[in-house]
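Researcher: Quick one. three chains, 870 residues in total.
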Amino acid sequence: MTIAFKPEETFRGDYSYRNSDAAILRFPFPFPEDKYMYSVNIEPHTRSGPSDIFLRPFDVDEHYIAECRDRAITLERDPGRYQALPHMMLAQWDTLELLMENLSADYPALFSLTKEGDDFGSRWTWINRPLGIEQSFIFGDADTLPCEPFEYITRQAQGDFAICDQRDDNLYMDAGMVTAQADWSLEFDVGMSFMEWHGPVPLAHQAGVFERALKYLLMLRLGQPVRRLNWTMSINPRLDTSPETYPEWGPDRASVTPDNAGDKVHLRVELQTLWRLPRSNAILFPIRCYLASLDDLARVPKWGKRLNRVLSTLPPQLVEYKGLTRYLPAALEWLAKHDDGAELPVGTEAGVTTLTPRVSD
Amino acid sequence: MMHSDITSRPTYRALEPDLAGSKHLLVIEGETLLTGRLEALTDTFAPVNDKLHTWLVGAPTASSGPGKVWHLEKLVDVLDLFACATRDYGMGDRLYVQGTEPFLWSVTTAASIIGFGPNQVQLHHAGSLRRRVWCTHCHTLTENVTASIVPCAGCGRHLLVRDHFSRRLGAFMGVMIDAEAPGAIPAIEEAFA
Amino acid sequence: MIGETLLLKVSTVTDIAPSLRHVRLVAATGSKLPPAAAGAHIQLTLAGETRTFRNAYSLVSRPGTRDAWEIIVRRVPTSRGGSAFIHEELQVGDTIEASWPGNLFPPVRTARRHLMIAGGIGITPFLSYLAEFAFSGANYALHVCCREEEQNVFAPWIAGQTGVAFHWDADGQRLDIPALLATQPVGTHLYVCGPAAMNDEVIAAAAAAGWPANHVHCEHFGSALSGGEAFRAFLAQSGIEVEVGEDESLLEAIERAGVKAPCLCRGGACGVCMTPLLEGEAEHRDHVLSPAERESGRLIMPCVSRAKSGLLVLDL
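Model:
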């Protein structure tokens, strides 16, 4: 398997990010039915699923190099996007080990890890070919890396990461690398309990969703990671839609028209996985973000039609919470043109192997 | 008092002595002491009176109060006392705090740094509803906020004060109100007087 | 790092005291084991002649080690079978199925100080704690209550560690638990693992000294009673009725009947075996169900809980 990276593409400024046809076909479309319901949609994160993004625990795709560069730019501007409370050092090493082991095993042409031993105190050598990095260090000794171990490895990974400490029958978000978030602030939320950081989410609290999810996660077992998909929408293919930079990207929401919606409005799907970490007993929460424009999605007829139906029946509280209020009408006007009302099969699979021509072509 | 569907918002309650505790410390923000309040607290804490110290912060001198009374000038004196005296506090100790919300969380944070756990601390919100607001964009804390929308003391942006609360910062989240449509600022309410 | 069970091979068996056997286990395939945390345990599936035992044991190997796992098993005179099997049957070279490590007794990493009290074999989870604290530099103390002659049994695991004190039943040597708990600084977390009576004594002394309950942690593991009066259980989905004997648990009786029931800790702590109770009155012995859930009478933890009388009908 070779991946044709797009090292020059951008997630800001001229927004040159584009999906190849193959990337669109493997997009993790999140809606199995025409109506969206908030639920505890958690399932085992085994090496299988309706898209091949599920085949490896940590998916690497054509946007890898560009995403790592975008993270570096965001961290340069605001180092507070990385946080780790002092008691999380063991969990930091757990995360570094998990990522290095999986990436080197699943992508041997891209990454390699050589160990002189498994225990703390052993010398390890890590090679990251796409980013041109070779680093020798002592596992367990943070002074032998250029930065803390969690920051070090997540600067070389796609997606955001949070680490939750488990104590008092609760989970606390005590560390994170968050540069591609859907409008939540790590610097504000760090140290919060499970219920506190989910505080702003509407509807789900009343439904008891979080109580059940928490009870489930407290019992999450080593070796049995789980996953769920979450989604929102973004204007332009922008990774950094944090509240910190809202003054920069907020005005884009007012720029959407029925004519440009296909190009500007993006469905933003998060593959959220949850891993029990071995030494710290903490839970690692990677949030891998996939972006596709309405134009991309409408090239899979089933997805274009379904998205129109899901968005037009979304409860008003969710429209508000997900920040869609200002541009949803324009997006729906664009999508309606791609929905003939035909009945659609249940499920998220694309149902096609080639795409219809791009609308804007 | 204040109601919100946002569940990060803490809830507060009336103080009562935890009889399981071995030593007790009551910290009161002076400006929240209405007439008769000190006497009421003296009654409430009578069962632990001989094991109780009370720190009155910025209060006019009172002749008596619950337990052994100490007068402190400012909040910072409380924080200094906690920071300097780790060995004096044990696992049976209980802390009770009465004050405005920024006061409660400043004291709680200082106590938690030396090891007080949440189950050793009771908080009673009294006096003004004013808030400390954290600017999401420049990370400045704006103190004494009583309006629903407030200019940030750091970057000057108009911040909508959300009910999302961080115990670590003792502050509510402030997010620019007119980012999507510059200048469009809704009517400002005096919401937290 | 994905999986549920592993096949282990016994690499060494050593009797370190008349009733204590140390077992070193490696991966049967010769590959690396998953790393485990301080306080972690594994559940072994031990195939005896008449029935299969599933017992959980704390790992005493250094946290994170991947070459071998080590356990120490005490021979229980009234053994349910697992410990007797390990002492009498287990041979070097035998293969055993094991769960991936679980952890119901992790150290609290925000603690400013860790105070551990062990009774006898209850020292096992703390042997892995000591290894972690030695690495992290955490402030800790371990008090071990044992027989005088047992002091040196665990020396290989505590060599070079300060902060470890032994106590035994003789004048001047007993641990004064109330005095110890009265003088601990704020921010301390207390961990106790030992016989049920000792656990209860420590927990009660902590409460009396004003410790908040969430700073007191007890490894209940294996200490919950499993026996009691015999009763019957009807498994509604399977259409099978089982007799639960005096010396076995409801879960063991269910497994003996060939019905696969989810389980993990087998000590009423983890909640994995929670089963809907359709009829009958349960005697709850678990640490999971809330008072309201017990009151509702609709759930039971078959690993430890039993019938108050007569018959239970389970949705299994």
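The mean pLDDT of chain C is 90.
Researcher: Thanks, that's what I needed.
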